[in-house]
Amino acid sequence: MGNTFDMEGFKDFLDWRDGELKATAYHEAGHAVVDMMHGFKVNFVSIETGDESSPTTDYNRRSTSFLNRRNWGLRTRHRAHGWATGLFAGIMAEAKMLNVDWQTLRETSGKGDYEGAFRLANRLAMYDAFACGEETISAYINLWEQKAATIVNHAQVWPSIVALAEELNAFEHVMGADLEAMFKRTIDPVLLARMIK
Asked: Domain boundaries in the chain?
């Protein structure tokens, strides 16, 4: 009798796993769509998990090479703002899908994104001629959070995030070319130019 199978427990596990994958799909879709809006080239988006893999949005090395530059000029700082907005977009999309306050995700699924944003804020604060301290860093974080929330909640952007998340839920992996085609079908270029200013 020691080898009984708990079907209810197994069903609960599958429901939990499906919910986790769905939340992850929205998180990665938020990153990918908003980063593409800011001109970053996405190689693929994946929610696959396993021994050697974890959910990720993979970028073309050239489009993210600015992160490794020693000195950041004005154009590089502008790209850093776009990148940080994309970091927060993943959190905002996941929170919207879960119908929770996005701040509840700061210490869970959004922790790595927040850490990346704080590194960017610290780096950008070095170039701020008027202030370089906690207030400046907080101002950057608040700006990026608000901008990401505005973009993710836009009536034209949210359906793009939903469409990509559904693709990820179905296939666990979407290649960059498919993502670009979806992006071109769903995002108006005029809206795009206005939103990323």
From this structure: 41-70+154-197, 73-148
